[in-house]
Amino acid sequence: MAYDSDNIFAKILRSEIPAGTVFENDHVLAFRDIAPKAPVHLLIIPKGAYTDFADFSARASDAEIVAFNRAVGEIATRHKLDETGYRLIANIREDGCQEVPHYHVHLLGGENLGSPFKN
Ligand code: AMP
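That is the input. Now the predicted structure with adenosine monophosphate docked in place:
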């Protein structure tokens, strides 16, 4: 899948639309989800143009991958979620119901989220 530079997260990265930024470094941006599904619902994205986890894991540099994973942990800690726990979700392409085609991880917490495997 080719990267669509008009996707909403690319626009956020170019500051063309606002975001509730909570974290930023050379490789990573994190901001509040516009439609939160938990008391804390953040989106963590690499600054590079990657469509999804598969693309990121295959093409990103080691430095980008390390920075991304460390940022996820640091953001969770800063929001005190490491004390009570949290959930990471990455939706990938059609079967994963990914809506925005720029790789992102959802970080959810702030309450007991229940099992994702119970209907
Ligand atoms: P996904 O289904 O994994 O692609 O999730 C995309 C997420 O992006 C959804 O949870 C949306 O609520 C969120 N979202 C869409 N537009 C914005 C925006 N402008 N700012 C923050 N979050 C957004």
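The CA atoms of residues 27 and 48 lie 7 Å apart.
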